[in-house]
Structures are given as structure tokens and as C-alpha cells.
Records
---
Amino acid sequence: MSATLDRQLRPIYDAIDTGSNKSAIVACNKLLKKQPKNDLIKALKALALVRSQKVEESLYLCDEVLASKPSDEATLSALSHVLRGLGRHLDIIAMYDTAWKQQPSNEDLGAQTFSANARTGNWKAAQQVATKLHKLFKDERYLYWSVFCAILQANDATTQPTLRPVLFKLAHRLLSSAQTPSFYSSDRFYVHLTILKELELWDDATALLSSEIGQTICSTNLTIDELRREIWKAKGSMKEEGERAQQRVKEKDDRNWLEFLSVLDATFWDVSSAPETAEEAKDACLHQITKAVEFFAQIADNDGARDRSGPLALLELEKRAVSHGLSKDPDAIYTLAESYFERFGDKACCFEDLVPYVQFSGDHLSNWIAYLEKHTSTATPEDLRRTINALKLLRYNLTQEQLTPELEAARATQYIRLYLDGMVHGQSLPDTELQPVDDLVVLGAHAFVTLWKTTGDVSFLYRAVVILEFASGKSKQSYVIRLLLIQIYHLLGAPSLALEHYRQLSVKQVQTDTLSYLILSRASTFALSSLGDLTYSTECMEASQIYLSNSTDTAEFVVRAFFAEKYSQIPDFVYLEDRLDNSLQRDLMKMEHVRMRLAHEAINSDLVDMELIELKFIFDRVHHDNRDFEVIPNYQPRDMPSFREQTTPFGKVPGSGWLSSFLKIYIKAFQQASDLDDSVEDKLLIGDRPKPHVESAGTMLLDDRLAQRPRKDFEELTPEETALLEFSTAVAEWLGPHHDYIRPPPAAVLAEAARQTELKIGHQPKGMTLPEGSSNGDARKDIDPPVVQDPPEIVLTFFDDMKARFTAALDGSVLSPELLHIITLTQEAFLIFAVETNRFKPAAVVKTHKLGPLVQSFKEIRAKASTTLTEMSTELEKLAKADSQINRQAEFVDHWKHIEGSEFNSEFISGVAKKVTESRHQVFEGIAKGAAKVSKTHAS
Amino acid sequence: MSVLRPFRATDLFKFNNINLDIWTETYGISFYLSYLARWPDLCCAQEAPSGRMMGYIIGKAEGQNLEWHGHITALTVAPEYRRLSLARKMVDLLEYVSDKGYKGYFVDLYVRCTNAVAISMYERMGYSVYRRVREYYGSLGMGRAGKDEEDAFDMRKPLSRDTGRRSVRANGREFIVSAHDVS
């Protein structure tokens, strides 16, 4: 590149880097006047265009440069960014491939070709490129690239299982041609061991690992050591591993729990390895147990309170002995648990440590209870922690009989009294610290939620909210308290307060994938998008940012890991990318977003076509559920539903079955409303299609898959959602033949799309025609038009049913979100009906196709829907008014008379009551007004 | 008692109980992957037998010649697992790998001058203040404690290769450099 050009281009690069795409385009245009044939300037312009969402123009320019087969690095790099922006990863590969073929001696181009393949997970091609690179440039690194790509291909979901062993053998053969031994670097060593493990070449693996250098690598690299453990386990050398672990624990003071587990596994190997256990094996095992008890006891004695490993290993040993019928002392586990509590009762994690071992019954249980009940002191911080652990353990072992409202209420009072007593220990802490008493309030909230569940009395939820809000004010950084509040506020129909607490958690980056379900699960129940309030839509968009950054960044690090030869990380990076890309939460949010969009925006072909294409992509995905449910604490008794289960709105967590059902509703409705058929869509689609999965339904046609109704999907739907599914199915079946008959032929749709694009960019787009003969033109017009049928029964009764449900729910027997659920789903049915009937709106269509009677029946349905929705809206608004006038303050305060403290006073309590009432009023009124608006908009 | 294991990319799905705590920052994916793609052996996690994550450490190796060393970028333990010496075990491992694996001269870390709890913890682990870095945390603005909040102590602990103990400086707290002088 000439120095002059370099100088002229600099400002363009800077403009693109800083996001000033407009000025970049202007600068490119200026330069292009002088040098109209310069590929690099064109490529940069295409990049600025795609970044300013001018896809069609960018596409045109990009194709022009691609056709000239560029091979200079700057142009290639600019183009690869353009293509990435367009989602055309396969074209990046082809581009580098072509460039490298022009200059085969250019090592960098070869490496770029490899990277392009690796970025896309194109392991087979990447492997071939790496092999070629190795042949040409003799760098051993390329050999390892090729070996590892074979492994990655073997593990890829799109690879046939029968091909796996073949690929591993290929990897093994390639590796054996290496000049330097694999222990040259720990990650090459990792690659080597992975292959040996897969091919079960135990002798080779043992030789490598037992060598001096092998041992050194294991001692400084946890990943390799992990692999070593797996190999030892797979080849059945448990005893040997147990001895090694004992040595590490004894001589190197290693307290990694993995070593203790190795000792435990070795101890029981005699009985657990054989399918039927002979007496001989039992005796041998008993002997091993005695030895292990001695060993662990000695560690426990030496470590004292410094480390929990010894005592916990004794507990685990006894538990396993019991399960094998080899325990000698029936009291042993009890004694161990008690002494564990003695020693570590003041550690916050004591409860979690002991839970697996304290499922007591009979005498042990009564002794355990008596022992724990002694711990009620809050005199010192240590006492306080011990008391909290004792209370958690007591609660864990409660039986159904002990959960009467009276006993549970007494427990709630006890938790709260202790909370108030113990508060002194946190008084001097800075407000960035957690309060040591927090967990007592968490326990209190657990008791109140159980009380609400057993009595149905909502006032217990109010009480839970009051104490949690109080504690949250005292312990501002406690995310645990906020999580409980978020759950309960949703139950109380106060979503804005839940959202406030969620925002205080400052959930960001990847956390939006694992945690946004807290506020976005069935968010359309609470969203006021029908009134133009985009709070929840915006939350969805923001929470979805992570998926964009995943698709741009993660693959880049796969490539970086290849260049840095950190092979051990690559499978995890690939898996991370896949889990985010195909995240269930991502698409649950997308679905919610579509539902909200429909309530807010005009229903036209732009919306319908775009969402149709996206939803169809989603329908083909194999999803990963990354939602973190574990983060919500649970201290409910062992045989009871967890706190999260108790507080899940509608008692049903939307999962893949829910998603699939809603996708079917919307894909079907959009498909009917849209003019795009598959052949048109193919032509209009920019970017690659997702890779087909081996497991996905494969050969089945989309229409057949959309018609499937697996029973398990219904388990995730509420009765109202099931009704909506049935409603929309019936509407689709009823109107399908008319849609198919009237829809313009593909060739006409494409011609129209081409005309639109031409208007936009000034020249004819390429590839916008169908192959000869594929278009059936007006052929079907020769068929008789479908006969107009009466509307299916269910379409008419749906609205009556929903009205009946709504009226029944008005008596106050259900939580307020259920009311909102009924009304928002009725509204949704109305909107789906609007989508389905949009095509039949123009008078000309009705006239041409003689649809008078059909359109007449639409009017009846619309009128019914509109009246129903208006009535519900009126009732809800009335309720909202009445609800806000109830003096809940007095009700709130009344419950706490017996426990008021200096700060925990009636003023504080009525403040909470006021906020709850206001939040509910806001959402009730909003949903009511929104429903009225929707019913007016779509009434005709 | 905890499982000491490598920190992996997929831990990003599991670390909420640690990262929701105010003292732990959640970065973009690129941050974690840039460390794992270069120094996976300097990143490890502690896990409870239940599978819950308890804490993690993220480190790197950097520097030229006599400055070649291991660096602790992030070290964190979830609130409910504090006071169990988990931090020490993870730091021990990072030091061991920096020493035996990377053959570094020392391990270092940066800590806010106001964070007395952390400073004394590191001192108990054998670290000492090597220098004070002006406005290291500058982007966060002035906090309650003024300058102390913005400045960082660079704390170092010599490894076996630092036979002359060059990474220990008696009056490190008074030795002041500007943020531009450190990487």
C-alpha cells in the first residue's frame, strides 16, 4: 500500500473504530471518486454500511469486492468484518481459502484460513487446513492443531457417533508423527492424554503420567491432574490412587477434598467394583474401613478446628459404610454429626456440610433435636452463627405434623426475635458489609411462606415482605434477601418493587443469561407494553446483549487459544459459546418480547415476516437451560417443596415445553399471515443457516412438527395457556386453506422485494429470482377456492370461558397475578386473531375471493372478544381502585404489635404497605387500560 | 474442606453466589477467556462437595527479565465460605505454579490502600508493600477516604528464584509511582 493511501485511509479506520460510520462512508465516497476500483476502500465502506444497518447496500458492495478475489491482508480483514456483521461466516472461509490458493506460500493467509474455520466450528475443514499448514511450513504447532481439530470434530454434536473412534485413531496416528515429545508443553501433554484415554491405551497413559516430567506437570497443572484422576478411575486403579492420595494428605498436607474422595473410593473398591459381593470382599472392605477411620481420625485430631476435611471424611465414610451394610455402630453417624457441630457449628457453612448426613429418625432424631434446641444464644457473634446453624438444621428435619400453622407461627416469631436480639453484632459494621443476622430473617420469610401455603392467607406474604424489607435496609448488600423479595413481590402482584430489587443486584454480562428469569419469566403478565410502556421490552433487549457479545467474542478466543496452544480450554470455550447461543432463557425472553411487541405495535408484514424467520430458527435449536435456580436459598424442611418452588408464580416454571408450545402458536399464526414461503425466505435471507443437529427431528417437515402436541409440554402450561394454544390451533386450521389460496405466488413476492430493494439502493439486487419452473405461478388458481366454514366452536367459547374464569377469580381466592394472567391471555388471543385475519381486511380481497360470509363471522368473534376484554378491563380497574382504598397500613401494622422494636415501628411498616399497594395499583390499572386500548384498536 | 479444581469457562454460569456479592466484579466474557486462553494454570476455583462454587482466583504471568512474575488479578470467596482459609489455599497454588511452572521471581497483587482487612490478610501470607501506585483506581473517582481510595499498594512476595529478595522493600509504603509507570 502506498504511503499516501495509507495516510488517506487512517481517518476512515479511526472513524470506524469510534463508531462514526457516517463520516467513514463520506470519506470512502470521496476517495472512491478518485480510485473507483480500489477494493480496500470499497470493503471499508461496506463495513461502515453494515455497521449503520444499511444491510442491502453493504451486501451489494461486499459481493462486488468478493468477486474480485482479493488477497491483500487489509482488504481481507475488512471484508471478514463485513461478512461477520452479515452473519456470512461460510463466505469468510471461502474468501480466505481463495486468497491462500493464490499465494500458497503465505503462511499468514493459511493461518487465517484455519482461524476462519475454527471460528465457525468447522473442525473437519480446519483439520485439513492445519495438516496442509504442517506439510508446508513444518511447524509442529500445526500438527497439534490438526490433531486437536480431529478431537473436536469427534466430539461435535453434528458428527455421527460411529465416526468418533475413527477420528480419535486419526488423531493418534497424526500425533505419533510428532518430532518432539508431547510433554514439551502441558497443553500438548493434555492433547496426548486425551487421545490415550479415549482409545483406552492405559499402558501408554500410565507410562507418560508416571514419568518424572509427567508427575511434575500434574503437580503444577490442575487440569492435567484432573485428567490423570479420570484415567486412573477409568482403568480401575482406584486402590493405587487411594494410596497416592493418602500420601499427599499426610506428607504434603494436601486438603483438597478430591484426595479424600480418592481415599474413600479406594476404601470401598472391593465391594463397589464387583456386581455381587462375596463375603471375602466384605471382610477385605471392613478391614479397609478400619484403616481409613484411623487415618481420617488422625487427620481430624491434628487439624483441630483448622480444617473440616478429616471430620467430614469420617462422616462420608460412615454414610458409605451404612449404604453397603458394613456399618458396625448404628450410633456412629449421629455421634460424628454432633461432634462436627461442636467443632464447626460457628462456621457459616456448617449447615450445608451436615445436610447430607443428618436425615435422622427415631431416637437419633429426638436426641438431635434436643441437642440443637439448646443453642439459642446470641451473646457473641460465634454464638449467633451457631444458633443460626442449629435453627437451619432443626428446620431441615421438621415433619409434616410439626408444620401446623400454630407451630410455624411460633417459629417465625422465634426467628424474628432472635434477629432483633442479634442485631447488635452488626451495628458497628460499615454498610458495605453483610449483617451477621441476615439468615434469621431469611428463615423467618421461609416460615411465613409456608404459613401462606398451608393457610392460603396472603397476609403472611405481607409479613414476609415487611421483615425482609427491614433486613434489606439494614444489610444493603445482601443479595439473598433481595432474591426472596423479588419472588414474593411477584406473588403479591407488585412487579415494580421486584424490578427495583433486581436492579439493585446489578446483574450484568453473563449473569443476565442465568438470572434474568427472576423478572422476565412470563413478563408479559406484568408488562404495560399495550400502553406504550417499554420497561420490560427494554429489559429483554438489554439482557440479550450478552448473546451478541458471545457470538462476536467467544469464537475469537477459541482462535486465540489455538495460537497460544492452550488446547485444554478449547472444548470449554466451544461449549460456553454453544450454551449461550442456544440458551433457553435467551429464547424465552425472545418469546416474551414478541408477545409484548404485538400488544404495542401495529400488526403489519414487517413485524410478521421478521419474527417468523427468527422464531423458525429458534424452533430448530437444541436448548440449554442455564438459569441459575440454585442461587435462591432454601431452608425448607427436607420433605417439602423448596422456597423457590413455593414462590414460583402460577406454580409452573416455563421451560422448553412452554417455549415449544408458544413457538408453535406464533410460528403458525405468522406463517399464515406472511407472504413468505420457504423458497422466498431462502432468497431473502442474509447470513448462514444454523448447522443441523444430529438429534433434532431431522427429516420431519416443519408443518408436521408444528402440529405435534407432546403431553409433557402441557405440564409447563397454565390452564389458560393451554386454552390459548387450543384457540390458536383452531383458528389456524380454520383459516389455513384461505390463506394458502390467497397468498401471492413466490415469484410475485420476490419481484416485489427486489423492487423495494432497488428503490433503496438504486440498483437491482442479485439472486432475487427463483429457478425456472419452481414457481407454480398462478397454477393453483385453477383449483377451486376453499369452501367457507363456520368458525370452530372453541374459537367462540374461548372468550366466554376466559370471562367465567375471570369472574370466578374476582372473589379474591387467588393471587392477583392470576387475574392479570387471565386478562393478558385473553388479550393475546385477540391479538393472534388479528394477526390471522389481517390478510382478509382489504375489501378487494373479500370481493375477489367471495369471502363475505367468512368476514362476517370474524365480526362476530371480534365483537365478542372486544366486549369480553372491555368487561374484564372495567372490572380490573374497579378492583384497582377498591384495592388502593383499603387501608392496608392498619392491616400490616396490626400483625406486628407483639414484636415492634425501636426501628421496626409502625411508621416503617406502613411505609412498606403503601409501596406494595401503589405498585399493585399501578399494574392493575395499567393492564386494565391497556386491555381497553387493545380491544378498541382491534375491534373492527 | 473443598475441592480445588481448575477455573473453567463454564463456571461463568455457576458463579452467581460469589459474584452477586458487592466486592466481586462481573466482567465481560472476554475478560475471563483472555486469562483462560493464556494462563489456565493460574486460574482455579474452590467448590463445595455439593457442587456449589465457593471462590476463585484468576492470575497471569508477566514482566521482563528480573520482573518476570506471577500476578493475582482477582481473588474472591463467597460470603458464606469466608473464614475457612480458602483464599490462602488458592494463593498457595498460584504461588506454587508461578514458582515451579513459570519460574517467576515473585508474585504480586494490587490492593486498595483503604482495604485494611485484605492488606493484613496478604501480610499474613507473606506479602509486603513494594510500592504505592498513585490513582490506580482513578476511574472510580474519589471515595470516602480520598486519595487512599484511589491509590493502590503493589504487594509482592518473593519466590525461590528471587534469592536476593529484590521484591521486598522495607519502606515500600513510601515508595510512590504513578499509574502510568505500571502496566
---
Amino acid sequence: MGGSASQLPKEQLAEYQELTFLSKQEILLAHKRFNELTKDERNPPTRVPMDKILALPELKSNPFRKRICHVFSTSEVKDGSLTFEDFLDLLSAFSDSATLEIKSHYAFRIFDFDDDGTLDGGDLEKLVNCLTGDTDDTRLTQEEMRQLITNILEESDIDKDGTVNLSEFQHVISRSPDFVSSFKIVL
Amino acid sequence: MESEDAEDDEDKEDEAPRNKRAANRRKAGKKAKDTEDESEGDSDSKTDSEEEESMSEGELARLTEEVEEKKKLIANIRTKPWRMRRRLTVLKESQEFVDKFEGALGGKGKGRAWFAYKMMMKKKWIKFQKDFENFRTSCIPWDRKIKEVESHFGSSVASYFIFLRWMYGLNLVLFSLMFGLVVIPEVLMGLPYGSIPRKTVPRAEQPTAMDYSVLMDFNVRIGIFGYSLMVVIRTMAKNQDVGGGDDADNEFTFSWKMFTSWDYLIGNPETADNKYASVTTSFKESIVDEQENQKDENIHLRRFLRVLANFMITCILGGSGYLIFFAVSRSQEFANRDDIGWYEKNEVEIIMSLLGLVCPPLFETIAELEEYHPRIALKWQLGRIFALFLGNLYTFLFALFDEVNNKLEEEVHIKNNSVWFLKEYLANFSMYNNDSEATAPPINPADAIRGPCWETSVGLEFVKLTVSDIQVTYLTILIGDFLRAFIVRFLNYCWCWDLEAGFPSYGEFDISGNVLGLVFNQGMIWMGAFYAPGLVGINVLRLLSSMYYQCWAVMCCNVPHERVFKASKSNNFYMGLLLLILFLSLLPVVYTIMSLPPSFDCGPFSGKAKMFDVVMETIDLDLPAFIGTLFGYVANPGLIIPGVLLMVLAIYYLNSVGEAYKNATLELKKKMQMARDEEKNRRNNKKSTNQQQQDLEDLLPKRSLAPPPPPENNTEKKEEKGGRGTRVKPGAAGGVNMQKDVSLASANPNARGPVTREPAPRGPGALPGNPQERGEKGRGRGAPRQ
């Protein structure tokens, strides 16, 4: 549906403008960049494999890039590949004008490493490891990790069931002044 | 769009699968549609006018409601966290539905054309708005540049540039206001008419009539302040929404660090590495902080050191104020001499700029004595810099006003002289012409003695101040950043220790210093704009060049911060500072309008006792009488004082309402926790820990206590655990009635299944985030309705 066409038809452009938070220029730019990912191939597929997406400069240095691809991908085989519409979804959620609800919804899904609908201790631990980088001297010790996770659960787990669900997450996030401005990706 | 005649069969066929597939038809809505279809089918054979009558009132109302709902859905479709495919389908369906039935609702026969016309105009208007928005976003300059800076340095450095761009826009508007409404009419009306002789040329007889251009001039100058005020407050209000409430910073420190510390704009691997390091450091620090709590070592020494530091800083502030005063009085002496060089002319301004340069690092070094937590230390530092700038500016102003008073005295002399000169001239003329009837030609204004114009000199001083400020800023960037980077880079090859890692190394971009500089610069502009209208134009140029210059300098000579430190809510903080500066710079201007007499010989306001008289005279002479009396009543202190009291009361009231909300939030949190505890206890068959609850239950007979479905009232920012509650057997959650009062900020979509299976198997009714969904399976509102 327009993913491999060299030109984006006008009604589709209008539709995409209705359906996403992106402006016309942003959609066109996204189309261009998306096509560039597959420009070397003779028969460009509608679905771009994950490693090509991860090569984008905007995502290259992001510790959550794989999770982002998985969350926005609609492929049945769960390989993280994105169609153009998935790509637009991604950009729309990360755009400047997206609402707090959308951003927090997707942030929750990105942080939910095991896809079970809640952020439990395992998810939080993986999250911290992503944030502290890969080298050994920047990781936290087991003791520190335990302490950190306890503190986090104490703060955000309101119903004290040991996990953070979407509502609790959104409650925490809605109070944060930095979230909206840092949860942004612009092409 | 199908014609209504052929539609009914197709519709019925399409309806069935569509209804099965569609995500958000309410049962009521569906029913309305079915009945509508039937009536449409019936009406097929009838004429138009009978068609309307065949629809009953109830159906009509329901249909209207449904159409409205669909329209709302279309408008909000982008806020739903669904997949694009699904959004597209829903959008198409909703649009078809709306198109089809909107015509049908169009009212009775005659009104139909008008209704259709209205709809078309509305659509055109919406399209126009969208196009305009697109145009506006494409007009915003420097997007690429800022994006580059963002990806290298993160969003906090970029926020400075965004602020700079915003200031540029503000100044541009002010400049065009000033230019368009004052300067152009002047130029157009031209010198031969010389709107007021005094404006272009000094001295003539007293003005006889009120000239509107003067009023306009005055209004424009006041309007500049008004506009700036409005814009700043509006931006602050907008930021307030985003920022959320401002209660304790410490409420969610860990969670925020976890969930919001990564900056997704970073695209540069080196910056990313820095970010990793800083995140790790901040985690470790906060863990340690938490464990450490109060380290009470030697509190007396610390107190003494802090008092000492504050004392030293006050001395420095006082010293700088005195220095400025001294320099200004020296400049008055200079003004009387003739052989002054460039330095003496600009001495005051240079001294002020240098002070602004030298003192802040001094403050920082002294502040190390104090040993505050970095965030608190930053606040103190900003406060001190603020005090420094303010003190300097006000000292400068006071010194200037001293001069003004001197000039005013001088003016009185000159006035006497001029009168005497005129008399002489006339006497000479009549002497030579022997004709007392002829009136002498007016003195060529250029010949007359001009008095000193204090407004001009004040304006001039401000211009000089701004210019020297610009020069000093640019020089510091050049030397402090560029030269430093240059030296570090090239001298590193032949130096004993590693310059890059060790002492000088590359500079980091000083966000707060730069923002403060910008804010104070704007304050000076506001103060001076009243006296020197061209100042705004100079500022526009300055901001423009600053943008390019600083972007280049940042990319070329700076490195990303090692410790990324978000003084959170910083955006609103800087706006608040701007607002404060606006008020503070308004004060001197208002004072001069109200009390100092304008200079006699130049400027648009001359001849009046006070500048404000311009407005008073207009009211008296030109506007109808009742407005004058109205203003008289309004300005009565008897009215103003109650007005002020009312405002104070309003502030107090709003404050207490805010506190009440906070308390309500705490209460609800407690209730939630209690509910959870109750459930846990129930499951474990233990006695209730809440004694009151236990008493109540002992009294009541054991029956299944299904809680009534909660109403839809929205208390703000409270989320509900309803999603969790449904997993429990009915009656278990019954004892606690909290679910009645509370509704969700956003429904918990995950009560039933994992999130990634959302698109396909989720049947109708299992929608995340759709607030209108009445839980068909009992989700989202916590009322088990099996």
C-alpha cells in the first residue's frame, strides 16, 4: 500500500495526515527515507527487515532500538520487520505533537520486554541494563540492581502487586516534565 | 458515495460482516442503524418529504448522536494506539457513515440546501486550517540546524536554541509592529509636512492640536509591552500543561530516572556513550543518596562556611554596583570634555559587560565552599547571577536618571534662553522692517537653540549598552570556546600532559549562562525600546547572527556534557524568568511616563507636563464625554482597592482548591492500597486488617456483593485499578466501594491478554484506550457483569 511505490498518491497522503500526528512534509520525508532503505534491490519488498531499520542514524544509537522495531512491527513471524505504515506509526508516536497518552502507551510496550502486559522485576532489570550500556564497568552490581528495582517498585507500584501495569506507568509518566521532550524521534 | 435509492440492499449485505469486524459500534448505535436501514428501505418507495416523517423522533436523536460520535472519532483517530490498518478501516467506515447519514439528517426539505452548503463550507474550512498548519510548520526556520544539535548534544542544549528561535520570533513581531505603525507613517507623511516638527526637527511653537500620530506612537510603545506580556504568559500556560503539577521533585525520582532519562533524539554514538555513563552515575548516586539520608557531620562548620560564602558574594554584588555608579558619574565628566577616545565614551558599558562576564565564575568558585547538592547549588548560582544582573541594570538606570535630572535643569535654562532669543529675533525683524503688522517668518528650526534631549541620551546609552554586550558575548565565545578548542587540539601534540583529557579540555556548552544572557538582553531591550525604537531592530539582527554563530560554535568547539543534568521544568523556569524581567523592565519605563517631564525640544511628547498626558488629553478632548467620566470612575481608588482585594481572594481560593485536590489524590491512593490489601486477605482467608471493615462485614449478611457499575464522572488524574478487579471473583471486591467514585485516565488494556496480540484476535469490545467502550466483557470499569 504505497510502501514500494516511488510516489505517494495524493489521497493516501491525505489519509495518512488524518491518521497520524505527522505533517505533510514529514510524511513525504519518511517515504523518501523508507524507500532509500531498499533502493539497491531490484524488487523492493513492502516489508523492510529489521537490520535495515536499525541502520537508520536516528535509531542506531538507541538502546531500545530492537524493542521499538518489535513493538511497531505487524509481521506475523515477529521478526521486527516494518512496512511503511508501521514506520509511519513509529514516527507518529515519537513525533512532537503526539499526545502524552500515545507516548506513554508505546513507552510501556517498549519497556515490556517479555510482552506480558506488565513491567515486572525481570523487565525492569533488562531495562536498567539497556540504559547502563554494555561494558562491564558501567553495569550495576547485583546488590545495586536489587536496591534500584525495590525503590522503583516502591514508588510506582500503587497496588503493591510487584509489577507496574499500564495505568500505574502512565500515572508516573504523566507527572514527569521531561518525558514528552525526550521521547522524541525526528527524521 | 452510494445513492440512497440503490443503497439499502447493498447496505444490508455489507452491514453484517462489517459489524462483526468493526471495533467500536455500541449496541445502541447498532440498533439505531438497523432501524434506520429498515426505515430507509421503507422510504425507498416514498417521496422525500414523507421520508423524514417516517423517522421517529427517538431514532432521529439516536442517529444524530451516532453521527456526532463518529465525527468525534474521526477527529481523534490519531490518538488511538491502534495499528495503521485498523485505523484506516475505521476511518473509512466512519466517514462513509457520516457522509451517508448527514444528508439524511439535513432537516426538512427547504433547509436541506442550506445544510449541505454549511457542511461544505465546514469541510473547506477544515481543509484550509490543515493547509495553513502545514504551511506554518514549513515556515519555521532552522529546523535542520537544531536537529543536528539535538542529535549531537541531546535535548537540553537544543532547548537553548529553541528558546533563541522563539525570542527571535518575538523580537521580529515587535520590530514589525514598531516599524509598521510608527516609522512608516512618519516617512510617508514626509518632512515637508513634518508630522510634528519636533520629531524631525527641533523647536517651534507650542503644539496647538492633538495629533493622532503622537497617540499612535505612544500606543505602539505601550502595545509592545502588552504584546510581549501576552505572549510570554501564553507560552508559560502552554508549558504548564505539559509539565504537569509542580509538587515534590522527589516524588518519583527513581522511576523517572528509569523511564524518562534516555533522550531519544541522540543520534551520535559518542553522545550515546556519554549518556550511558551519566545514567549509570546518576543511578549509583541516587542509590547511595537514598541509603545515606542525613549525614550529619559537623553541621556547624558547614553553616559557618555558607554564611561566609554568602557574605563574600554580597560584597561582590555591592562592589560591582558601586563600580558602575562610579563609572557613570565619570562619564558625565567625560561628556563635558571634548577630547575623549572610544574607550571613555563606552566605558560604562564595557565595565558592565565585563562584570557580567567575570562575576559568575567567581560565584561558582565561592559556592564550592557551601557543599550543596548539585541541583540546589545550581539554583543558588542562577539566583546570584540574577541578582548581579539586576543590580547592575538598576544601578545603571539610577545613575542615568541622575543625569536626566541634571539635563532637565539645564533645559530650564535653555528654555529661558530660547524665549529671550525669540524675542530678540522678533524685535530685530520689526526693527528692520518698520512694519509691525507683518509677522516674522518662522525661525528656521535648525537655527534655534536646542536643549538637551534626555530621552535621546537615555536611548543612546541603551543602544551603546546593547552593542557592547553583543561584542563582549561574541568575543567570549570566540576566545573562550574557539581559541580554547584550537589550542587544546593543536598544542596537544607538543605538551607535557594530555590537554584533551586534563586541564583545559574542550568546553561544554553552558546552557543556563547563555539562557540568562538572552533573558537579560531582552530585558534591556524592553527597557530601552521606549526611548530608542530602533533598538528592537538591532536586537533582531543580533539574534539572527547569534543563531548561526552559536550553532557553528557549538558543533565545532564543544563536547556533550559529561553529567547530563536536567534542571527539570527548566522550560517554564526560563519563561518565568522572562516574565519577571518583563515586569522589572516595565517599572522604570512606567515611572518615567508618569513622572518625568518629557524634554522640551525633541521627541513626540514635548510640551506636555508628563508623557501620560497624551492619553489624558485624548480622552478629554477627542473621545466622547461619557468615556471620560467612565475612566474617571474606574480610576477611582475606591474601585481599585476592592478590585485588588478580589484578586488576592481569588488567588487564595485557587490555592486552597489546589491543595484540596492534592489531598484527594492521597486519599484515593490510600484507598487503592487498602482495596488491594483486602483482596489479598480475602484470598488468603485471613481476617481483615482494617478493623472498621471487619466490623462492617460482621454485621452484614454474607451475600455476593456485586458493586454497582460506576458512573462516568471524570475526576482528574486518577487512575483506577478496575482492570485488576475484574480478575477477582465477583463479590470479592464488593466490600470496597471505591470503584464508584473513580474513573480511569486511561483504561488498562491488558487485563485480559498480552499486548502484542492486539490486532487480530481481539474481537469487538476489547479495545484499549477507547473511553467510550462500556466494558462488554466487564473490563475497564471494574464492574463484573457476567
